[in-house]
Every structure is written in structure tokens, then in C-alpha cells.
Amino acid sequence: MNATVKSTLQVYERWAQVYPPLAHNPLMRAEQQAMLGMLPDVAGRRVLDLACGSGRYSRLLLEANAAQVVALDFCVPMLRQVAAADRVCASMMHLPFQAAAFDVVVCALALGHATDVRLWMTELARVLRPGGSLLYSDFHPQAVRAGMTRSFKDETDATWTVPHQIYEVGCQQEAAAAAGLLIETVAELRVGVELTEAFKGSERIYRDWQGLPLVLVVRARK
After folding, report:
1. How far apart are CA 129 and CA 25, in angstroms?
2. Is the dihedral of CA 173, 179, 184, 188 positive or negative?
3. Given Cys at both, which of 66, 67, 142, 152 links 42, Cβ 3.0 to 4.6 Å?
4. What does the pLDDT read at residue 22?
5. Are 139 and 164 in contact, with CB atoms under 8 Å apart?
6. Looking at residue 6, what is its pLDDT?
7. Which domains does the chain have, with CATH numbers?
């Protein structure tokens, strides 16, 4: 089945069946290491795990002693896997929370699913308290333009590809500034540099794509 003709929600509903609540491939492990290295202090704070998927960051945030973690996703089968956190089914484009509800917002590998990057940043800024922090990652625009995709095989061995919007780094920075967010740190995870874990076919990938940014990680403050 060609998943490029399927909606993002349909793809994630299918992916949930084989999607564990942990970093289960080299790219995700490199992304998670970078995200945790840039994570603000969440101890005693209220945190939103935005587009939480199966809840891998919800678990890590609770282990970091967050006072409360709210896990939000639009995919019910993904949310069913989330343990301990308070689960909310909603769109990340229209957050069902009052202003200044959270000290920290964490969002992993989901910006490319936003329909409008400015609205996305505005909503995140709205629910952050003054002085609060935003930490997010996404599949790098250069990787998307190079033809790389986030794909998986289901139990029937059919390949599904997650739809992805390209938002250039400069566009993200402009949207953050317009929303009143100050970007503090930007990191790019590159093939053969930050991503070095060996896996099946990695020799060819490291040879052909050496230096290509695969993941973007951004930390901002309101």
C-alpha cells in the first residue's frame, strides 16, 4: 500500500500497532540523546508532551520528576500506549488548554505534521507561562528534500510513509519570533557525525549521505 495517499492520522493509526513507547531505531536514539541534553529542568514543573505518540517522552519527563505530564496526541491508538501521564486527545494546532498552563512544552518529530508553522508556534507560546521553555525536534528539511522519508512496514509487510510538511529553519525561526519565543539553541544531527550507530545498510548510508542533517533540535524560551 502506498501511504503517500493516506492522511497523517490514518498512517499513525496503522503505525500504532507496531510502535513501541521507546526510541526504537538509530535516528530516534540520536534524537533522544540530543533532546535530553537540551532538556530544561522539569522537576516540580507542569509539562506538556505535545504530539506524544506512544509516550516515550512522557515516561522520561516523569522520571525527571516533573510534577505533572500532560500527553496530547490526535491518534487514539497511540494514546492508549501512554502510561502514567494525563492523556488528552486533540489536535496540536488547537490546544484545549488555558493560557500559561505549562512550564515546559516538549514536542518530538512532529512539526512536519503542522498545517501552519506560525499557528503552531503561536499555540505553543500561548500555553507556555512567561519564562517557560519549548523543546522540539523534527525531521530536517534538508533530509526531506534529499528524498529521505519516515516509513515503516506493518504486519502485512506493506510500507507506509508519514506525510511531512517542509518548514525551513529560517521559517521556523521567524515563526518563533512572531510568537514571542526566543530561540536559545539549535542543533543539527548529521549522518556520520552525530548519527554514527551501526545498523543494517549503515555503511552505504554513511558513505552516500555523509554530513546530511537528518534531525533538527530547537530549544526556545518565552
Report:
1. 34
2. negative
3. 66
4. 83
5. yes
6. 62
7. 3-221 (3.40.50.150)
148-158 b/e (C-beta count within 10 Å ≥ 16 → b): bebebeeeeee
How many of the other CB atoms lie within 10 Å of CB of 38? 16
CA 3 from centre of chain: 20
Residues 6+ apart with CB under 8 A from 197: 26, 29, 30
| Distance, CA of 123 to CA of 111 (rounded, Å) | 13
Is the CB of residue 52 less than 8 Å from the CB of residue 89? no
- Cα(148)–Cα(145) distance, integer angstroms: 7
Residue 12's SS3 state is: helix
Q: Which residues of the chain have pLDDT under 70?
A: 1-6
Cα 8 from chain centroid?
Answer: 14
Residue type, 10: Q
Cβ atoms within 10 Å, residue 28: 17
Count other Cβ atoms within 10 Å, centred on residue 58.
28
**What are all long-range contacts of 118-121, with beta carbons under 8 Å and residues at least 24 apart?**
118/175, 118/178, 118/179, 119/93, 120/92, 120/93, 120/175, 121/172, 121/175, 121/176, 121/178, 121/179, 121/181
Spatial separation of the C-alpha atoms in residues 70 and 49, rounded to whole Å: 6
Q: What angle do CA 175, 177, 181 make, to 5 degrees?
A: 105
Element (H, E) at 52: none
Residue type, 167: Y
- Written as nine digits, the cell of 124 is 505553543
d(CA 61, CA 57): 6
